[in-house]
Amino acid sequence: MLLVRESHRHALHGGHLRTAAEVRKRYWVIGDVNVSRRVVHDCIICKRQRGKPVNQKMAEVVKLYPGKDDLVRVVDVRFADDIVVKRPVTKLILLMKGSERSDVS
Ligand SMILES: [Zn+2]
Q1: Residue 19's Cα: distance from chain center in Å?
Q2: Where are the alpha helices (DSSP H) in 1-105?
Q3: Is 4 in contact with 19 (CB distance < 8 Å)?
Q4: InterPro entries, from UniProt (predicted)?
């Protein structure tokens, strides 16, 4: 495993076949492709390169609770899995639609 990890680094964090080829230059390891695949999968540097940006999960406001002065201070928000939670509007961030944004023409 250590030998394959070193070969993976020497192969400049190439894929599992590139790493296995690097191992085969000097050693014959039984099951080298599978070991290389595991080493590449577990490599932190490669994981960072493969990582995708996370999309923010948006919650939906499903119910407003207007006060006696008709100002809404509390709303029901539906999160994933249909969990509805009552939240103060100060904890929410209002997102504008694309046509309302000033930076989009
Ligand atoms: Zn790597």
Answers
A1: 26
A2: 2-10, 16-24, 32-42, 44-50
A3: yes
A4: DUF5641
Give 23 Cα–ligand 1 centroid separation in angstroms. 14
At 81, is the pLDDT very low, low, confident or very high (cuts 50, 70, 90)?
Answer: confident
pLDDT classification of 48: cutoffs 50, 70, 90: confident
Over the Cα atoms of the chain, what is R_g?
26
Ligand 1 centroid from CA 35, angstroms? 13
C-alpha of residue 4 to centroid of ligand 1, in Å: 11
Q: Which residue in this structure is represented by tokens 């006060």?
A: 67
Q: Tokens 């994981």 — which residue?
A: 47
Ligand 1: distance of its center to the CA of 49 in Å? Answer: 9
